[in-house]
Amino acid sequence: MTNTPRKKPPPAPPTDPMPRRVDPCVATLVDKPPKGPDWAFEVKWDGYRLAVRVEPGEVRAITRGGYDWTRKFGSIVAEARQLGHKSLILDGEAVVLDDQGRSDFGLLQRAIGKKPSLHDAGEIIFYAFDLLYLDGHNLQNLPLSERRRQLEPILAGRTGAIRFSEEVDADGEEFFRVACELGLEGIIAKRRDKPYRSGRRPEWLKIKCARHDTFVIVGYEPSTVPGAIGRLLLAARKGEGLVYVGGCGTGWSNQESAKLRELLNAIPADSPAVKLKRKGAVFARPLLVAEIEYRAWTQDGKLRHPSFKGVREMGGPTEVYEIVA
User: Which residues participate in catalysis according to the annotation?
Assistant: First the structure.
């Protein structure tokens, strides 16, 4: 009887060591969405960028800057242990949603902060939009479409702390218009055929929605540049009075800054028009208004990322932004 020699098992596929750190791909800011079938579109989430790393015996949540925030995102870490894979790296955004389902950075800050909040850390959701490593295989050189094809079944149907950030099958301009109407921060466009590369990249684009409103100028903080303004102090109407909504320190040229300071110095106020204490601030009578572009409101009622667009005399109470209690 002849012994049939045993066939050798096929060699195991090569295993890529998990990278110790992957610097995130960062989207480039542009004015309008790109066109063409090569681009995929997603909602731009307003939160903290995270890499969720699952390894045998350990799960960590690492911020864009490389900080280990595992303890701050306990519900995300707990759910990552249940995804059914020994090792993976998810790229995504941790957010808290408001009553309309929009991500709100102020709510997120309060949820993970020390101050009392109506939202707790258990309400934080991680929207994963990319898969960089899976069970011994580094996926960064694969095109985005393939990375997401492998990511989707891992997260399909999940409605807990970790969810799949869906692509939106729509024309980019139309999607952007609708996103802004809904009060979202903006949209992201990504090339389907490109690998994952760290740093600010042209194959990932961000298009932000901006808000434009008019606010009363109640004073300014001087600049370190002689004769210039460091920050305009702004107010909105609330009831019969004004309420401080923050400072604006960008959007003007050196010449415009000097002219603004001259205008405000010419209408000094005996006392501030709003409840505000600022060392070194120069207060003015509320006779001028500023056109301001901004992204959103913070949780404590201040303008987020305001930029100055112009100034004029107040024409009437209706043109000033009003906060409805």
Answer: 44
